[in-house]
Amino acid sequence: MKIGIDLDGVVIDSVRLFNTYEEIYDIDALKGNNLINRNQVDFQEKYDWTDEQKSEFIEKYFLRVAKENKLMPGFKEVYRLLKDEEHEFIVITTRGKTVKKLKDESLRLFRKNNIEFDKYYWSVTDKLEICKKENIDLMIEDNWKHVKRLTDNNVKTLYFRDVNMIKLEKNEYIKEVNNWGDIYRYFKEMNK
Fold first, then answer.
1. Domain boundary among 53, 68, 83
2. Residues sharing a CB contact under 8 Å with residue 5, sequence separation 6 or more, in sequence order
3. Are 22 and 99 contained in the same domain?
């Protein structure tokens, strides 16, 4: 099976770290409460920050978070089990679009953990286009906007949903998961 896979919040445990630094920046650096929608994935839509404040946050924290990143709990084990079953993993990520060095930090983390994906697409704006180009059988994604676009266009997607993320209506193309154990169970049940 060809599996498309996002990185942040799916493979790399960066979302919770970003959320922490977003709050620190908003409260300490900006001395306020500019939170407008906790359910958004991207800080640009979560806070009422000026363009200058957004740029300052990116400059101050993006590379720092990338250097502190770890793999999601359980990812390495489940990835290896699924690779043993000869599944193909294709990274489809927006990572590297805003800060180019994030790609290098990701590859460093993968080398450190002996992880090598079959193919990489970095700085992607349109994940649907890549899924169609690669004939992806299943996408694993945590951004609800990407999930909605994919599932609205008949791409089967595992929605890796964290507690604050928007809940989407289930249909034949979307299945909600919360951890890599859920993902492993999905594959085992699919093979029955």
1. 68
2. 11, 89, 90, 91, 92, 117, 139, 140
3. no
Query: Is 141 in the same domain as 161?
Result: yes
Same domain, yes or no: 137 and 167: yes
Q: Parallel, antiparallel, or unpaired for β 119-121 and 138-141?
A: unpaired
Q: What is the dihedral angle through the alpha carbons of 178, 90, 127, 121, rounded to the nearest 10 degrees?
A: 130
User: Which tokens in the block code for residue 136?
Assistant: 């992806």
4: which 2 tokens?
Answer: 């498309």
43 shares its domain with 101: no
**74-91 pLDDT per residue, tens:** 999 999 999 999 999 999
Q: Angle, nearest 10°, between helix axes 51-68 and 15-24?
A: 130
192: Cβ contacts below 8 Å, ≥ 6 apart:
none
* Amino acid, single-letter form, for residue 61: Y
98, 146: one domain: yes
pTM: 0.91
Give strand pairing partners of 138.
3
Q: pLDDT for 95-113, tens place per residue?
A: 988 888 899 999 999 999 9
Is residue 30 within 8 Å of 23, Cβ to Cβ? Answer: no
Count of domains in the chain? 2
Residue pair 9/142 in contact (Cβ under 8 Å)? The answer is: yes
Q: Is 25 in the same domain as 7?
A: no
